[in-house]
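request received
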Amino acid sequence: MSVPPLDPTIHAPARLKIVATLAALPEGDALSFSRLQTMIGLTAGNLITHLRKLEDAEYVATEKTGSGSAARTAIALTRTGRVALDDYTAALRSLLAGL
Amino acid sequence: MRRTSGIGGAEPQIDDELDPRVAAGLLEQTRRAAERDLSFRSPWLTAMAAIVVLIAFGAAWLSVLGQRPYQGPTWVALVVLYAVVLVRVITVALAHHRARSGISGRTTGQQRAEAVVVVVVLLAVYAVMAALLVAGASDAIVYGLYVTTATLLALGTVWAARSAVREDWLQLGTAFGFILVAAVSAFAGPYGVWLSDGVGCCIVLLALSLAQVLQIRRDRSAA
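response:
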């Protein structure tokens, strides 16, 4: 039986942490950029870079509200992102079972 | 939904090589840390609730114990009851605020709606209490059997409905526990209902606290 490949978009430490953290929220909920940054422990720049990659794959969606000092960015895992994480977890299990 | 452009400065992307075993460990560790951070529930908070409910109902029971005829809990007992409940509410509110900080979306609206439902249900319970007094019901019925049983049944039912919708079976079992305690305690009479409710709810909450501890241990061993 062939082992499915690991999704390279998720298979990076920072992005894996982002996706796993957002997946802990119920579907339809979003996390503020600052809270996500605190929970994951990345610099703002690094977090943005990884979020862009996840956004390009349509795994996360971000929404910016307000302006100036009141600006707030909320990040949510999309349905596609949840499915991708489930597939990634299944692939990881298959891979580890075969080792 | 928009992109995150314009927040801070972009830094070079780091895509470290990741061993599958390390990835599995990281995934589980992050998932558990996130669930812990985002939840305000804890075995300690639940155990504290068990103590609170025992003190609150216990104070009311002690105050009615020697009353002939029955008049209901004294002001001192009510002050103790509301004080410990207030401490509990503040503790939960602080834990909830810390856990929910930075979270927006559907469940935030749901929780507001649930809070409104609880307030409306409690107001209805107390409105019926006033109606019973007007109808000439005795103090033993109104300030003993009714107020304890109806309040517990109403809150238990709201809790059960909420837990069923969220498919939270542990909380649903706890809510059923409260409903059972309320129904059975009604047979203890106006004096005994306070003690029976206090001890019953305390046992239900301690059982929930133990179940939460076991759940945490099971999650850890599965990791």
